[in-house]
Amino acid sequence: MTAGVLGDIAVRGCAALSRDAGEPLAGSAPAMRRVIAVEHVGMWPPRVAEHPDEAVAGLAGRLRAEGVILLLIRRPGRRGRETESERAVFVADLAPGRSRVVRTTVRGPEDLDRVSFDLSAGEPVVDPLLLVCAHGRRDVCCAVRGRALAASVVEAESSVDVWECTHLGGHRFAPTALVLPTGYAYGRLDASSAIQASKAAGLGEVEVRDCRGHVGLEPVPQVAEIAVREHTGIRDATGLVVDAVDGPGLVEVRDPQGRHWAVDVRVDTGTDARPPSCGAALEPVTPLVAGPPQLLS
User: Can you say whether the dihedral through the CA atoms of 187, 38, 160, 123 is positive or negative?
Assistant: First the structure.
């Protein structure tokens, strides 16, 4: 790696270099089918599982063994560092087309041992939540771009329920966000597009612009679903079903009206190399790309 490239990474960050490389967003959503998000006002180490608070680390380990991802969340700005008598807990099963999210509370870290993946124990979440990755100790771009995005959304649209959160995957797509309860991930957001994504979720819809995919799908189905949405204009978050596949190739996507599309999803080897995160070495980029959806019936 040349000194010039190293300097560019240091100055501009991995997110700018990913954009410049032309790396697509579609198919980059993290695998987060089952999630618990816990309000936490203390420090966030690079990895939640290595948190110095044994209660937090213990919860992360217990949930990981159950196939559940733990996110720590906080309100943006100084408000997010204040200690409340009760802290929010969101339990989410993000199955494509039938996601469920409930909210409960804990008193603090000493109460985390009773947190479990139990969708019957909380109040259903209907209004959208915007979880913006602002995990600064994990990546500089998430710190700088994520925190700025969360603050700008609060300033521009106070009605949006926005939280900062720990690592969502894909630092190079910062600022990134997960929208609940629909379960769609977004990248390279600004205040306007983040607000649009949140408002779309409030209508039970998907904002295709800047969408990385549904976190309950694998990358290839993510790409196929987004391609059909772009092709047809279908916005209903429950309006498409994607068949499971083993890898790139033809993917079938269906809607409730009986329409059926075939989407050819392939690996693109023509994208320039980029660092996967700030401070990392350049790596080859092999994103997934979709051909035009073909209506079968």
Answer: positive
Alpha carbon distance 60, 142 (integer Å): 21
> Residue 6: pLDDT band by 50, 70, 90 thresholds?
very low
How far is it, in rounded angstroms, from Cα 226 to Cα 237?
11
Q: Spell out the domains of the chain, with CATH numbers in brackets.
A: 12-216 (3.40.30.10)
pTM of the full structure: 0.92
Q: How far is CA 28 from the centre of its chain?
A: 9
Q: What is the pLDDT of residues 118-129, one digit of tens each?
A: 999 899 999 999
* DSSP state at residue 205: B
Average pLDDT over residues 240-255: 94
Residues 6+ apart with CB under 8 A from 195: 153, 156, 157, 160
Q: Is 151 exposed, middle or buried (0-12, 13-18, 19+ CB in 10 A)?
A: middle
Interatomic CA distance for residues 181 and 161, integer angstroms? 12
Q: How far, rounded to the nearest angstrom, does the alpha carbon of residue 106 sit from its chain's CA centroid?
A: 24
3-state helix, strand, coil in the chain (%, to 5): 30, 25, 45
How far is the CA of 168 from the CAs of 28, 58, 65, 132, in angstroms? 11, 20, 19, 8
Alpha helices in 32-86 (DSSP H): 54-65
Other CB atoms within 10 A of residue 34 CB: 18
Q: Which of 75, 68, 256, 92 is nearest to 183 (CA)?
A: 92
Burial of 104 (0-12, 13-18, 19+ CB in 10 A): middle
pLDDT (tens digit per residue) in 145-161: 989 999 999 999 999 99
The answer to whether the Cα torsion of 252, 255, 261, 263 is positive or negative is negative
